[in-house]
Design a protein that fits this description.
Helix content is 12%, strand content 38%. The chain has helices spanning 2-17, 68-73, 91-101, 149-153, and strands spanning 59-64, 77-84, 107-110, 119-124, 134-141, 164-165, 175-184, 187-191, 193-201, 205-213, 219-227, 230-233, 244-248, 251-254, 261-268, 273-279, 281-282, 293-304.
Length: 307
């Protein structure tokens, strides 16, 4: 992939996972029955594992985002609960959970999580923080960017691969629909393969993210920001993700802020639609890549339930 690819892939990994979150294979809420992932229905079957069944006590680790990280990652407060299969936690299990808590920026061990009436969702952590004989859950708290479970479906929230509402129903991830196209070194290319996009808002700022490939695996990434009535390519990501990039066999890299332009004809709230034209200019070759010129671009996407 080369230095350009590694650098941009690392920056965009932050956007793709939207936080450090849960990892590993899918973990069922507990011994819950299979859930219907095709609806936002909050009515749970009688044998579902619900948020109310996550035990208090045990070990609690509160993780708090600050500043721009809140809305770009899509969450403000998460509290990780670790409990022993046979309570209480042993000294070794507690020590392991303490160590896991220090891994996260803004994290601290607390006597108990914040009041649970402010929790909107939870996710089971694939690798329990306390090690063998323990279970761990992330409690996701309501905030400006996570006012409801729909915000989680659109891409907000911790980076858990599987998230559940309070009643134990899996919250299905909304699908990215649409594509982008642009002239690259004078050749029209369509980015409609492996399309990944999301939408987040804190009520003041809103942002669509887009990442898509051509059939020949050329890749385009865009961060489209709206502040008030102004739509721009977002050059202010707190984790250093570039506002736009192109990577292909014909060159690529990031682009100078002074070259990039975008004009949105449609920018709808809650993922309902982005339609815009853009030009990125000629890519920066400082990281060793061949230059690529991207012009006459068009993007038309939305984030919503699968049809």
């Amino acid at each position: 992939m080369g230095r350009v690819g590694r650098t941009l892939a690392l920056a965009w990994a932050v956007i793709a996972i939207a936080g450090l979150g849960c990892s590993g294979p899918k973990a069922a809420p507990q011994d819950a029955a299979p859930q219907d992932a095709g609806a936002m229905d909050t009515a749970a079957p009688s044998d579902a594992f619900t948020a109310a069944m996550i035990p208090a006590g045990g070990h609690s680790c509160r993780i708090t985002n600050t500043g721009n990280a809140i809305w770009t990652q899509g969450w403000e407060t998460v509290c990780t609960v670790t409990a022993a299969d046979n309570p209480p936690l042993t000294a070794a299990q507690k020590q392991a959970a303490d160590a896991a808590c220090t891994f996260y920026l803004g994290a601290m061990v607390v006597a108990d999580c914040p009041p649970r009436e402010n929790v909107i969702a939870f996710c089971p952590v694939g690798a329990a923080a306390g090690g063998a004989g323990t279970k761990t859950w992330d409690l996701i708290y309501k905030s400006s960017v996570t006012p409801d479970v729909e915000a989680l479906a659109m891409g907000a929230g911790r980076g858990c691969p599987y998230t559940y509402d309070l009643n134990g129903r899996e919250i299905p991830k909304y699908r990215c629909m649409g594509s982008a196209a642009a002239l690259v070194n004078g050749v029209m290319k369509t980015f409609n393969v492996n399309v990944n996009c999301g939408y987040k808002s804190d009520g003041t700022r809103s942002r669509y993210t887009f990442n898509g490939d051509t059939i020949s695996s050329d890749r385009l990434g865009l961060l489209v920001l709206k502040t008030g009535a102004l739509v721009t390519l977002d050059t202010t990501d707190p984790f250093g993700a570039t506002a736009a990039f192109y990577l292909g066999a014909d060159g690529g890299g990031g682009f100078a802020n002074s070259q990039m332009r975008i004009t949105a004809t449609t920018f709808l709230d809650r993922g309902a639609g982005l339609v815009a034209t853009f030009t990125l200019g000629t890519s920066d070759t400082a990281q060793g890549g061949a230059p690529a010129t991207v012009t006459d671009g068009m993007i038309d996407i939305r984030v919503g339930p699968a049809p």
